[in-house]
Design a protein that fits this description.
The complex is a heterodimer of chains A (412) and B (245).
Chain A: H1 5-11, H2 26-45, H3 55-61, H4 66-79, H5 87-95, E1 101-106, H6 112-118, H7 125-132, E2 134-138, H8 146-159, E3 165-169, E4 172-173, E5 182-183, E6 188-189, H9 190-199, E7 203-207, H10 208-213, E8 226-227, E9 238-241, H11 248-261, H12 274-277, H13 288-293, H14 303-306, H15 325-328, H16 352-355, H17 374-408
Parallel strand pairs in A: 1-2, 1-3, 3-7, 7-9
Antiparallel strand pairs in A: 4-8, 5-6
Chain B: E1 7-11, H1 15-39, H2 56-84, H3 91-94, H4 98-112, H5 127-152, H6 165-174, H7 177-185, H8 194-226, H9 233-236, E2 238-242
Antiparallel strand pairs in B: 1-2
Helix pairs in contact in B: 1-2, 2-5, 4-5, 5-6, 5-8, 7-8
Classes of the chains: A alpha/beta (412), B mainly alpha (245).
C-alpha cells in the first residue's frame, strides 16, 4: 500500500481539529474523579498478576524515596492534563499497574523503543513502572525462546483473553505476501501474527513511528510495502505513540490513563494521545527567543551553535512537529535533541524520514520530484511516448490505407 | 478631457477595483519578501546584539501575517464583486458559452500572432483576461487556506487574542488542506501530512510569481501592440479605443 488515495480523499472532510481542551470544567472532573476511584477500587480487588514485584519496594531498592515518587506522580498528573487533585489517584494507579497484563510484540523494527525504556542513565520511575506492569510477553526481554516463547504467548493470549493491552513495536511489511518478515518455526508472517494476537486484546498501542506510520521501513521507495498497525488492526481501540524512539513517559502515561479510567485517552486525527501530541515542539522550545530574534546556527560548530542559537537554518522541524519532548524531554527531563544542539527531525510526524529529516529548511530541501526516481521516470516516459507514437503511426497507416482505396476507386 | 482625434475614452476599472489592485500589489511584494525569509532566513542579524533587541523573524512573520489578513479581506471583496459588481460581473466572462470560448481563443490568437489578427472587441474586459484573473484568485485562495492552516498550528491551545471562535473557524475552514495537499503530493503513510501543506504553500508562491511576470509582460505588450493605452487602466481606470470600433 504505497499510497491509498481513496482513503485520503475520504479523510478530506473528516479530519478532526487538533486543538486541545485543557479545562473541561469542574463538573466534568468531579465525575471523572468518581469514575477513576471506582475503577481503582475494582482493580484493588484483583490479585497482582504473575509479576510478583511490589512497586513501593522496588523504588526503595533502586534508591529512590517516596518523595521522588510523589514528585513523579504530580508531574505525570500534569502531563495527562488532569487537575492537581488527581495526584493521589495517579500514585495509586501506578501501584496497581501490575494488575494489567501487557503483551509486547516486535515486528519490522530495531527494538529502539524497548531500548529507550531500558537504557536510561539510571533507573527512573517511568522505567520502574514499565518493570512493574505485568509484561506477559516481550521477545527482547524474556528468557524464554523458541517453542517455549511461543507457548508462553499462547498461554498469555488464552489466559487474559479480552483483557490484555497489546503493545506493538515496528512496522508491518505487506510486500511479497508479507514474507519480508516472519516469526517462529512455522514462519508466520508479521501481518498474520499481528492480526492473531490483536484479536483478543482489550486495546492496541502502537509504539514508535514504525508501528504508527511504517516509519523508516516505509521511507521511499518502501521496498517491503511497510505500513503501520492502524492500517491492519480495525475495530479495536488503538492508540499511536509515535516518535523515534517513543518517549517512555508517554508509554507510561497511556498505560496509567488506561489503568485509571479504563478508557483510552483523548486522541487526535492520527490517533495520538492529545496529552502528548497536542502541542507543537516550537511553542515550548527553549531556543524559541532566538528564532524570533533571527539568530540562527549557520553551520555546525559556529559561534551561533556555541551560543545555543535557533537550529531552524540547519533544518530543525520543531515548527512543524507535534510532540511534548520540549516540555518533558527524555529520560525524565535529562535532555532532548534540541537541547543537545541538533535540530528536531520531526520523528513523530508521518513520513518523517522523507519529508522532515533532511537537516535543511524546507525551502532548501531538494525534495525529490514526485516522479519516483530517474530510471523509473525515464522508462515510464519512454514507454508512454513510444505507445503514443505507435498509436499515431497506426492511425496514419489506417487512414492512408483508406485514402489509397478511395483513390483507386477514383473517389478522391 | 480632450481626446486624441478618432479615439474615445472607455472606463475599465472602478476606483474600488484599482484600490484593491494596488493593495494586492503591495501585499504581494511584502508576502514574497517575508515569506522567503520565513522559509529559509536569507540574511543574518548582527550577532553582537542581544536577542531582546532584535526581533527579525518575528517582524517578518508579523508582516507576512498582516498582509495575509489584508489579502483575506480583499479576496472576500473580490469574490463578492465577481458575482455582484454593478460595473462588470467577471463571472459572466468565464461561463463556457460559445461567445466566451470564441473570444478566449481570438484573444489568444491575437497574442500568438503578435497582433496580426484581432477579431474581438477590446473596449471591455475580454474572456481571456477574465480567465487569467480567475486563475490568480484561485491560486490566492489556495494560499490563504494553506496559510491559515499553517498559522493555526501555533494556536493549539484553542485560544486567541480575539477568542476561541477564531482558531475553531480556522480548523473548520482549512483542515481539509492537509489531506488534500498530501493527496496532491502523493507518497504517504497516513494520507495526511502537515509538511505537504508547507511544501505546497511554498511552491504555489512560485506559480504566483510566474503569474505576475506574465501579467505585467502582457499588459505592457497590449499597450504597445494595440496602441490603446491599456497600461493606464490600473492607474486612471480608463483606456482609449478607436471610434470606428
Amino acid at each position: 500500500m504505497s499510497n491509498n488515495k481513496e482513503e485520503s480523499v475520504k479523510k478530506l472532510f473528516t479530519t478532526q481539529s487538533a486543538s486541545v481542551n485543557t479545562n473541561r470544567g469542574e463538573s466534568y472532573y468531579a465525575e471523572l474523579y468518581a469514575k477513576c476511584q471506582k475503577r481503582l477500587d475494582e482493580l484493588k480487588q484483583l490479585k497482582p498478576l504473575n509479576n510478583r514485584m511490589d512497586f513501593l519496594e522496588s523504588i526503595e531498592e533502586e534508591g529512590l524515596d517516596r518523595r521522588d515518587f510523589l514528585k513523579w506522580a504530580s508531574a505525570t498528573t500534569a502531563m495527562l492534563m488532569l487537575p492537581a487533585s488527581f495526584t493521589p489517584l495517579v500514585a495509586e494507579a501506578a501501584v496497581l499497574m501490575n494488575r494489567v497484563p501487557v503483551i509486547w510484540m516486535e515486528l519490522q523494527d530495531c527494538a529502539g523503543n524497548s531500548e529507550a525504556l531500558l537504557r536510561s542513565d539510571g533507573p527512573q520511575i517511568d522505567e520502574i513502572i514499565l518493570d512493574i506492569i505485568s509484561l506477559e510477553f516481550h521477545e527482547t526481554l524474556q528468557a524464554a525462546s523458541g517453542h517455549q516463547a511461543e507457548k508462553q504467548m499462547e498461554e498469555a493470549i488464552e489466559h487474559f483473553k479480552g483483557k490484555y493491552l497489546l503493545f506493538v513495536e515496528g512496522s508491518v511489511p505487506l510486500g511479497m505476501e508479507g514474507y519480508y518478515g516472519t516469526i517462529g518455526a512455522k514462519a508466520e508472517t508479521f501481518v498474520d501474527h499481528l492480526k492473531r494476537v490483536s484479536k483478543d486484546a482489550a486495546a492496541v498501542v502502537a509504539v514508535g513511528s514504525c508501528a504508527t506510520y511504517g516509519g523508516i521501513p516505509a521511507a521511499a521507495p518502501n521496498p517491503t510495502d511497510a505500513v503501520g498497525v492502524m492500517d491492519i488492526v480495525k475495530g479495536k481501540p488503538l492508540i499511536n505513540i509515535p516518535a523515534c524512539p517513543a518517549n517512555p513517559s508517554n508509554m507510561v502515561g497511556v498505560i496509567l490513563h488506561y489503568v485509571l479510567t479504563g478508557n483510552v485517552p483523548e486522541l487526535d486525527s492520527l490517533l495520538r494521545p492529545k496529552f502528548a501530541f497536542g502541542y507543537r515542539i516550537h511553542d515550548n522550545c527553549e531556543r524559541r527567543a532566538h528564532f524570533d530574534a533571527g539568530e540562527y546556527v549557520e553551520e555546525w560548530g559556529d559561534e551561533g551553535a556555541k551560543n545555543n542559537f535557533c537550529l531552524y537554518k540547519v533544518g530543525c522541524k520543531g515548527p512543524m512537529t507535534f510532540n511534548n519532548c520540549s516540555i518533558i524531554r527524555y529520560n525524565e527531563g535529562v535532555n532532548w535533541p534540541i537541547g543537545v544542539g541538533r535540530g528536531c527531525i520531526g520523528c513523530s510526524e508521518p513520513d518523517f524520514w522523507d519529508k522532515y529529516a533532511y537537516e535543511r529548511p524546507m525551502a532548501n530541501a531538494n525534495i525529490k520530484a514526485p516522479t519516483g526516481g530517474v530510471e523509473k521516470s525515464v522508462d515510464e516516459f519512454g514507454l508512454g511516448l513510444l505507445t503514443a507514437a505507435g498509436i499515431g503511426i497506426g492511425i496514419h497507416a489506417a487512414a492512408s490505407y483508406v485514402a489509397g482505396k478511395k483513390e483507386e476507386r477514383g473517389e478522391a | 478631457m480632450s481626446n486624441k482625434e478618432g479615439y474615445k475614452q472607455v472606463k475599465r476599472m472602478t476606483t474600488a477595483m484599482r484600490i484593491i489592485h494596488w493593495v494586492n500589489v503591495f501585499s504581494m511584494i511584502v508576502a514574497i519578501a517575508t515569506g522567503l525569509y520565513i522559509a529559509a532566513p536569507y540574511y543574518q542579524t548582527f550577532i553582537a546584539d542581544d536577542a531582546v533587541d532584535k526581533y527579525v523573524m518575528a517582524w517578518n512573520r508579523w508582516g507576512h501575517f498582516m498582509v495575509a489578513i489584508i489579502f483575506d479581506v480583499t479576496s472576500i471583496i473580490v469574490a463578492y464583486l465577481y458575482f455582484f459588481s454593478r460595473f462588470e460581473k467577471p463571472y459572466k466572462k468565464v461561463l463556457p458559452t460559445g461567445a466566451n470560448i470564441k473570444e478566449f481563443f481570438e484573444v489568444l490568437l491575437n497574442l500568438v500572432t503578435l497582433n496580426r489578427r484581432k477579431n474581438f472587441d477590446s473596449t471591455h474586459s475580454d474572456s481571456f483576461n477574465t480567465v487569467y484573473f480567475t486563475i490568480f484568485h484561485l491560486l490566492l485562495a489556495w494560499m490563504l487556506f494553506t496559510g491559515l492552516q499553517l498559522y493555526v498550528h501555533g494556536l493549539e491551545s484553542g485560544e486567541s487574542s480575539i477568542g476561541a471562535w477564531w482558531p475553531w473557524i480556522l480548523h473548520v475552514a482549512t483542515d481539509w488542506t492537509v489531506p488534500f495537499s498530501t493527496w496532491l503530493m502523493g507518497s504517504t503513510a497516513t494520507g495526511a501530512n502537515l509538511m505537504d501543506v508547507r511544501v505546497l504553500h511554498h511552491m504555489t508562491m512560485w506559480l504566483i510569481v510566474v503569474w505576475v511576470l506574465f501579467h505585467i509582460y502582457y499588459q505592457v505588450w497590449r499597450t504597445i501592440f494595440w496602441g490603446e493605452g491599456d497600461i493606464s487602466i490600473a492607474f486612471g481606470g480608463t483606456k482609449f479605443v478607436k471610434e470606428s470600433n
